[in-house]
């Protein structure tokens, strides 16, 4: 696999890497030379079993990249608390942490079970907190690093008049936690600037079809290719904190603002420049308006 090598020598831990956005980020980071520690619940028995870490690692290795599979159930406090040390031990250190894992559950507030509320907080706020806290001293010892949190366009305020998704979609709690993730990102960026640890967030500008999101996306809805988000993720993890930290980026807007050439997940091909569709959230405004 021919790479551009922007992450050569780096070790990246990607959570939720058995499928969807996590797998796509793992593939692209490996294509740029990183040793990827792919973690998720499902290890799998072979590289042919779908939606498993074994399949992710096999795909990376077929393309000439380096990867390690590390099974972990982040709902289990013991597995969650020792994941960073296990990953660093297996790979020889840690330079990049991608907090991607999560299982979105939507429900109107009135009918939402308390355990669903608690799981949403656990998946999208407690896990990034616990993993980031453990990763900071390891990155500091290596002279810097990058923490990337997965955001969501739902973190932005609902538009008026309210659309059908906001009225009936039950997204309120998920969206509120994703808004908290963005503020967590911005605050942690300030805390770690002097340590050269960049902390950024990336979310879709519209919607990306994944095994986890497909049940919430109406049939025929024009979703965006995952490659635009992945290229943004790469850009946010390959520069020092002094150049970019505390950004809340969105997948279509950021590449346009930065003039990025968006590549395929194996880095061998290119995609056209993104087009901002008319149904994108108006608060994003012109390309890059949400960037810092």
TrEMBL record:
InterPro entries, A to Z: KR_dom (IPR057326), NAD(P)-bd_dom_sf (IPR036291), SDR_fam (IPR002347)
SUPFAM superfamilies in UniProt: NAD(P)-binding Rossmann-fold domains
Alphabetical keyword list: Oxidoreductase
Keyword RNA-binding on entry: no
Coiled coil: none
Domain Ketoreductase: 10-205
Keyword Oxidoreductase part of the UniProt annotation: yes
Gene3D superfamilies to which the protein is assigned, alphabetical: NAD(P)-binding Rossmann-like Domain (3.40.50.720)
Family per similarity comment: Belongs to the short-chain dehydrogenases/reductases (SDR) family.
PANTHER family: OXIDOREDUCTASE, SHORT-CHAIN DEHYDROGENASE/REDUCTASE FAMILY (AFU_ORTHOLOGUE AFUA_5G02870), SHORT-CHAIN DEHYDROGENASE_REDUCTASE FAMILY PROTEIN
Name assigned to this protein: SDR family NAD(P)-dependent oxidoreductase
Species of origin: Ralstonia soli
């Amino acid at each position: 696999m021919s790479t551009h090598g922007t992450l050569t020598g780096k070790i990246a831990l990607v959570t939720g890497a058995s499928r969807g956005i996590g797998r796509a980020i793992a593939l692209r980071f490996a294509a740029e030379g990183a040793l990827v520690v792919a973690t998720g619940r499902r290890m799998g028995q072979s590289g042919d079993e779908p939606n498993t870490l074994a399949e992710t690692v096999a795909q990376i290795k077929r393309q000439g990249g380096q990867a390690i599979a590390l099974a972990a159930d982040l709902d289990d406090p013991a597995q969650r608390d020792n994941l960073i040390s296990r990953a660093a031990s297996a790979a020889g250190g840690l330079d990049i942490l991608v907090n991607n894992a999560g299982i979105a559950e939507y429900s109107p507030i009135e009918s939402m079970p308390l355990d669903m509320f608690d799981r949403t907080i656990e998946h999208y706020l407690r896990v990034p907190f616990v993993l980031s806290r453990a990763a900071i001293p390891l990155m500091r010892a290596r002279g810097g690093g990058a923490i990337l949190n997965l955001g969501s366009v739902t973190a932005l305020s609902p538009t008026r008049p309210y659309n059908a998704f906001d009225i009936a979609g039950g997204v309120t709690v998920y969206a509120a936690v994703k808004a908290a993730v963005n503020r967590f990102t911005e605050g942690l960026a300030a805390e770690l600037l002097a340590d050269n640890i960049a902390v950024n967030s990336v979310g879709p500008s519209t919607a990306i079809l994944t095994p986890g999101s497909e049940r919430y996306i109406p049939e025929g809805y024009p979703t965006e290719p995952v490659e635009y988000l992945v290229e943004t993720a790469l850009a946010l993890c390959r520069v020092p904190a002094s150049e970019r930290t505390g950004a809340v980026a969105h997948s279509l807007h950021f590449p346009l603002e930065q003039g990025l050439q968006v590549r395929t997940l194996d880095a061998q091909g290119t995609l056209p420049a993104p087009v901002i569709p008319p149904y994108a959230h108006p608060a994003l405004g012109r390309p890059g308006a949400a960037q810092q």
